[in-house]
């Protein structure tokens, strides 16, 4: 009987993309993978080819097994005997997994980083500043599971792109303190549009007002604003077929990297580097001209 691993990674798109090589390594190791993550990431999880089932999870809230709608099943799934913490270094994330119980039974084994507050969990020590993808591959290698940090490519979903060949501009970046100003995104969008490039503006439903503001200031029609109008699968198809991604959110440039789409990341310096292109510096002083120049370089790099 195939063993099952319950994997915790209960944050957003960027977090899920950072553990794709680790998830695939677990699958190649012969394990069935149940991923504890927000349910809205289920389409992206399916594209990894390494996730058999989603267990709904929000942050570090307690997990419920076997999951909504399965409690009354004639044969609910058995609680996995292995849990893998790909969420953090603990102790809170360790305890979310260790406290999971079903019919009086808990998880037998936990693969995780060592933490002095949970001394009975053996694992490697956390290295601050380590790249996220490398960190989770190193964890699995410590437990004897080979993991390739370059195994990040995603398949293009069998969904039509809402704007094939477009330049995708994604202003959203979580908190407003991390967001490049709307006026500069608008300048970039207008310039690229004037050069004959099709431009679309993406984001979540919550970010739609910001996206509409960018379009308005760029004097572009509201129809180009796809924020709040695409599913995650459609967003993947859009990025996979895009000519370029310009984003204030590292999650979208990481998605671009998974599809080998060139990108420009505009964000404050925090030690992260995108493998295609990263314009570093203070987001408050990066000019629209600098980003336009970076976009021209990326478009001319022959990536697509």
UniProtKB/TrEMBL annotation:
Keywords for this protein: Glycosyltransferase, Transferase
Highest rank taxon of the organism: Bacteria
CDD domains: GT9_LPS_heptosyltransferase
Name of the protein in its database record: Glycosyl transferase
């Amino acid at each position: 009987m195939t063993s099952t691993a319950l994997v915790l990674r209960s944050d957003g798109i960027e977090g899920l993309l950072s553990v794709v090589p680790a998830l695939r390594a677990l699958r190649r190791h012969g394990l069935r993978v149940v991923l504890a993550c927000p349910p809205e990431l289920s389409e992206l999880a399916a594209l990894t080819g390494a996730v058999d089932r989603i267990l709904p999870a929000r942050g570090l809230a307690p997990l419920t097994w076997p999951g909504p709608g399965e409690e009354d099943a004639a044969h609910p799934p058995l609680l996995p005997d292995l849990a893998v913490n790909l969420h953090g270094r603990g102790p809170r994330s360790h305890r979310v997994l260790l406290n999971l119980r079903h019919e009086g039974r808990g998880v037998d084994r936990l693969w995780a980083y060592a933490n002095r507050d949970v001394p009975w969990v053996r694992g490697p020590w956390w290295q601050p500043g380590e790249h996220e993808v490398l960190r989770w591959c190193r964890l699995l290698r410590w437990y004897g599971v080979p993991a390739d940090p370059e195994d990040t490519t995603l398949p293009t979903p069998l969904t039509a792109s809402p704007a094939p060949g477009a330049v995708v501009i994604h202003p959203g970046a979580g908190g407003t303190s991390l967001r490049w100003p709307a006026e500069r995104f608008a300048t970039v969008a207008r310039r690229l549009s004037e050069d004959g490039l099709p431009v679309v503006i993406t984001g979540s439903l919550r970010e739609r007002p910001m996206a509409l503001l960018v379009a308005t200031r760029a004097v572009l029609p509201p129809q180009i604003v796809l924020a709040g109008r695409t599913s995650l699968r459609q967003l993947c198809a859009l990025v996979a077929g895009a000519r370029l991604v310009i984003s204030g959110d590292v999650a979208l440039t990481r998605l671009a990297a998974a599809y080998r789409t060139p990108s420009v990341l505009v964000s404050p310096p925090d030690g992260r580097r995108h493998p295609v292109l990263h314009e570093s510096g203070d987001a408050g002083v990066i000019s629209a001209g600098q980003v336009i120049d970076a976009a021209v370089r990326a478009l001319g790099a022959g990536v697509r």
